[in-house]
Design a protein that fits this description.
The structure is a homodimer. Chain A has 22 helices and 6 strands. The first copy, chain A, is mainly alpha-helical. Chain A folds into 3 domains: 123 residues, MgtE N-terminal domain-like (MgtE N-terminal fold); 101 residues, CBS-domain, CATH 3.10.580; 151 residues, Tetracycline Repressor, domain 2 (Orthogonal Bundle). The N and C termini of chain A lie far apart (74 Å). Chains A and B meet through helix 11, helix 12, helix 13, helix 14 and helix 15 of A and helix 11, helix 12, helix 13, helix 14 and helix 15 of B.
């Protein structure tokens, strides 16, 4: 059933039979779906249901709502209930909520949290949005060096209700440094009397809180964990990043690369949340840059004005030839930018990449030369233009392949995101140089001055 | 330390001190890193180490190698060891290995597996590569309806060694139908004497084996699970998909979308594994299609031949104006194709999307009109061309925004992957229509026939 229908049904039950009946229906849904229903209800209905829900269930549901809606709900509840809900929510959600609010509103919510919790939240809030630290949650299970397996399992039973992921137990020393990790599976399968030091592994894969969030995604993708510990410079455990947050990062990174490849600065928000003036600002910079870079096409054309007025037919093939060059470049660039992003290709592969792209370009160029020759014939512009257009097509395609092979690798080497070499960028580069190629070929083949 | 250095070190230890010492070093690495080292060793060294490893460790390591290398190792081991290794590997890896081999080789390996296991593997092998079923592994933990929590936990202790993910226990009825799911956390926190029917939830989110793998990714992303059950048409449990495989799917889908948006058919393999003739084949189709679609630019130019020979200056701005149109279209298309892929936008939003893109296009068009006017002035082509070029820039940008807003949504509605509306595709569409706009504006504003 769709969320909209669910919401209508539940609103009807709420009006007819009251909270208990509506809740019975709501409880059966997954947290994500429950949140979708809540978001669609009237504010008063929403508050009635949240008040009637058991706190853990309400907290779990609230986590899937947008920060504004979370705040609107918390703001309208009695303080004790709101405080209990906030404390029951996972800390990474609380951090996101606090960062999204006005400082005064955030301060009011923070006052509801116990001092120790507030302190740890404050630490997490210092990490910028694109770092691993910003994704961390403090709801992990830590055990102390020197415990037995049984002690660790008892601890899991005690604190496991609050933990976001109980797949791993992180062992820390007296100074809070991460020294060991054991999976819950290993703990359950181990002898309960064994020392914790005999279970799991000592060289823990962890990510620094200040590392880029992509680094966390790379580690988790590589090692197939469901959570990754986050440490500070002294290897002290600050929190964990759960795999669901990493999945969101992977989606977001792909979105950003696609938007960059399309020739736009990535949007910070989802499409409909981005107002038109912001869409304009994200796009106009590159559009103007490309316009200025492309302006020399006019210079090239002007330079060959004489040739163009002698052989007017040459003009007819300008968009087709430079378009083909741009298309070839776009194909190569998008493939290589992605290969760089997932680590399949690096700068040291430049020679191999160039050889492959030039070979592919030569094959494609030959095919396009035939197509261009046929087009010249069918347009009926006289027999001498066909060979000129065909040879130019071959040259332009090979040239575009070369430029598109070298540039992304070079930028990656210079630590510039290669996704800025968008399709539009390559097309623009190839436009002017392609025209120069075209008219030079024409001059030589038509024996013109 | 890099894998190459690790491999050199371990080879040295192997030659100097023997397998035991080398193994002590190797065991400390994560499975992924261990596999990287193995892949870099000489075949004879590799086999010595695999023979010396405990079977579960060797199996876990082999899972991270490519199918060809897996086969080369298994093929050189004594049959009992090879058979034990194959059985200890996770079933989704075994399926991928068997599908990658020559049928005769695959049959030889399959003969090593117990009949019951072979049967289940055969079922999984029937699902095509792009389905959820192809990602499933049979190493899950199933419990029977009617058990107590204690019985379920005892079962986990007994079979947990072989399971790939022990985060969930799936409850099936006498006919193998999936009726309930409980997380290991819920089991550990529950009263051991409680019936299993009281723990976890009855409405299980599962994916059909025949569903697209993107559907599995969507469900797992939405509900934040670490594993997703896979069922047949009768809701019988066939296997589970683990979150690490879903992460690979998300990466692969993003790669495909990026390659499509660049105007190429997606590559089936990674970049360097794709031979040049395949790169050529994946690209030439779209390149020729775009060439044919773009061929009408020549017709348009020919149609306006008279105008062009009267006002030669018009030619100078052709690449710049149609390039700007293509760039605008590419920005819009990439943003919208991604928004469609992640479900932020759907066909029913067409009106809103169009309004937003036309508004953004009008702002961008105004900016580009100013830029175009300045360019006309600096090129010194006479005062009458500036206004023509400026007005055309405005029109072309708005027009490109409209086309790029409508097409992806329309294709998504028609169940064609909107990523085929690549940047090159939009550029090509806008090229010809943009020229028509340009010359029409010129005729009207210059009062020419």
């Amino acid at each position: 059933m769709q969320a909209a229908e669910q919401a209508r049904d539940i609103a009807t039950i709420l009006q007819g039979e009251g909270e208990r009946a509506a809740l019975q229906r709501l409880v059966r849904l997954q947290p994500f779906d429950r949140a979708e229903v809540l978001a669609r209800l009237e504010p008063a209905e929403r508050l009635r249901l949240v008040r009637a829900m058991p706190t853990p269930l309400a907290a779990e549901t609230l986590e899937y709502l947008e920060p504004e809606l979370q705040y609107r709900i918390l703001d309208h509840l009695d303080e004790p209930l709101a405080a209990a809900l906030l404390q029951a929510m996972s800390s990474d959600t609380v951090v996101d909520l606090l960062l999204a609010l006005h400082p005064l509103q955030a301060a009011r919510l923070k006052a509801w949290l116990p001092p120790a919790y507030r302190e740890r939240i404050d630490t997490l809030m210092t990490f910028p949005e694109d770092t691993a630290g910003s994704l961390a949650t403090i709801e992990y299970i830590a055990a102390r060096e020197g415990w037995t397996v049984q002690q660790a399992l008892d601890h899991v039973r005690k604190v496991g209700h609050d933990a976001e992921v109980v797949s791993y137990v992180y062992v820390v020393d007296a100074r809070g440094r991460l020294v060991r990790v054991a999976s819950l599976r290993e703990l359950i399968l181990a002898d309960p009397r064994a020392p914790l030091a005999d279970v799991g592994r000592a060289d823990v894969i962890a990510v620094r809180a200040t590392a880029a969030r992509e680094e966390a995604a790379r580690l988790l993708t590589r090692y197939d964990f469901v959570a990754l510990p986050v440490v500070d410079d002294q290897n002290r455990l600050l929190g964990i990043i759960t795999v669901d947050d990493i999945i969101d990062v992977i989606h977001r990174e792909a979105t950003e690369d696609i938007q960059r490849l399309g020739g736009s600065v990535p949007l910070a928000e989802s499409y409909f949340k981005t107002p038109v003036p912001v869409l304009f600002r994200k796009r106009v910079g590159w559009l103007l840059t490309l316009f200025v870079a492309g302006a020399y096409t006019s210079t090239v054309l002007r330079h060959f004005e004489d040739l163009l007025s002698r052989v007017v037919g040459l003009t007819f093939f300008i968009p087709l030839l430079i378009g083909t060059g741009g298309n070839t470049g776009s194909q190569t660039v998008s493939t290589l930018v992605r290969a760089l992003a997932v680590g399949e290709v690096a700068f040291r592969d430049l020679g191999r990449v160039l050889a492959r792209e030039v070979a592919t370009g030569a094959l494609l160029g030959a095919a396009m030369a035939v197509a261009a020759y046929i087009r010249a014939l069918t347009l009926g512009v006289g027999p001498q233009l066909g060979p000129v257009v065909a040879v130019t097509a071959l040259f332009i395609v090979v040239w575009a392949s070369m430029v598109a092979a070298i540039l992304p690798l070079l930028l990656h080497r210079l630590r510039v995101d290669p996704a800025v070499v968008s399709g539009p960028f390559i097309s623009t580069l190839v436009d002017g140089t392609g025209l120069f190629l075209y008219f030079t070929v024409a001059r030589v083949m038509l024996h013109l001055p």
